[in-house]
Amino acid sequence: MARFFTDNRFHDNGLAQIAADRGLAEVTRNPLDANKFSTPSLRNIALTAPYMHDGRFQTLEEVVEHYSSAITSRATLDPNLAKHPTAGLQLSAQDKTALVDFLKTLSDPQYIQN
Ligand code: HEM
Question: Which residues contact 82 (CB under 8 A, 6 or more apart)?
Answer without folding.
Answer: 73
